[in-house]
Amino acid sequence: MMMPIDADSISMKPFANGRRSRQLAAWFTALCVLLSASATAQMSHLPELGDPSATILSPQEDYRLGQAFMRNLRQNVDIIEDPELNAYINSLGYRLLAAAGTDLPFHFFIVDAPSINAFAGPGGHIGIHSGLILAAQSEGELAAVMAHEIAHVTQRHLARAFQKASASQLQTAAAIIAAILLGSPQLSSAMIATAAAGSIQQQLNFTRAHEQEADRVGIDILVNSGFDPYHMPAFFGRLQEAYRYMESNLPELLRTHPVTPSRIADSQNRAGQYPDITQRQSDSFPFIQARLRAMADQEHRYRLKELEARLSQSDTLSAAEQYEYALFQLQLGNLEQADTFSRTLLQKTPESEQFIALRAHVELEQGEHEAALQRLQKALKLFPLHPQLTVLYARALIQADRPKQAADTLRELIQKPQQFVLPSYYQLLAKAESAADRQSNAYMALADYYQMIGQLRTAIEQLENALSHTAADNSFQTERIKAQLTLLKRQALAQQETQAQQ
């Protein structure tokens, strides 16, 4: 049976996947220490060719591990699926990558967790906790942490850690990877923490060496990206000072990336070696923070009360605060107030893609799909395939009973070069294809969705449904589905066999 998809819930409810982040905190702690980075790079700081670390984790193995890592991660933690937030974090990430001089594939994503943390997993997957973004006082501080994580990857710290580890440590690391990648019920977070404790202590000096190297390379990346190098020691120093008397409540970033006074001093000295630079900070950062706060489920409702109190006292809100307030009202279904604020913001800054998206979203919620369509068509000429605008445009097309055009638009977004595809794109594509009475395509889109979130058996079921709905004379579609089925069945069998060995 075709699964019903509520396209209207996709854009504004990216956090609705459950709340299991806190249950896996110990897993992430172990992962970030023993899996502090991954994969090959093309920088002058790399180990020499022939380094034995290059033979322990090949680029192909790293890629496969990274894909499995992301599938499992989506099953066990809340990853924010909002197109605008993902576009921002990847845009900032690729700005840093351009300065790093690497052409490796990277993927930056936001974990919906209040903790102040970031991590570099296998395959160039770099996760940033939403709590870290909200704790940063500027885009430069966020960029400093991301540059640090990029440096972990380009310096091959994962492979080098494996090369240095003893056989017993490798067993511990393998157990932790299996637990995280496979979601093994036999390995609880407490067992992982206990098993990892000894090896973490044994690797402490090596880990600190990694951190210092990542600081130094990260500062180079930061400067070459046009950011003030002092953002890195300033952010880590501020966190250390704030939590210096709270050993049991340290933020995850300080636990998984040990900060010492000598390390901060070293990064300050390195920052001082660069001449003053004119920073190239984006104007988007306060709006990104506002969007994160407004889209949280309950944690930031105090913020809404604060904004309402200021409005009642006739205080002037900044543009970012007005944007945040409008998003709160939109989320709560108070369309009249959302309408007023979205109009005001757009009148002041008519070419802001964020304000255009906000206004179009309000119009869609009000049932004014034709007004939204006209607004979005015009905007997409200025910002071709902008993720948030394109998703809203596809939703408007579905509302206007033009599902085929919506499906074509979404496929164009999905196939855009260097565009990281969100699972929610495939959900919306399935809805459009179903509305267009192209059921085989709809099932295939759902198969892609379930494959991305790690539900391989459900993905297989969707492909079998697609095969049964494919016309007998469409041999190309039939063979394509069969090939994908074969691949997924192999992956599911390998996953089942590995789980049985745990």
TrEMBL record:
TPR repeat copies, ranges: 353-386
Coarse class of the protein's main subcellular location: periplasm
Protein name: Putative beta-barrel assembly-enhancing protease
Cofactor note: Binds 1 zinc ion per subunit.
Cofactor: Zn(2+)
EC code(s) of this entry: 3.4.-.-
InterPro entries to which the protein is assigned, alphabetical: Mito/Outer_Membr_Metalloprot (IPR051156), Peptidase_M48 (IPR001915), Protease_BepA (IPR030873), TPR-like_helical_dom_sf (IPR011990), TPR_rpt (IPR019734)
A Pfam cross-reference name: Peptidase_M48
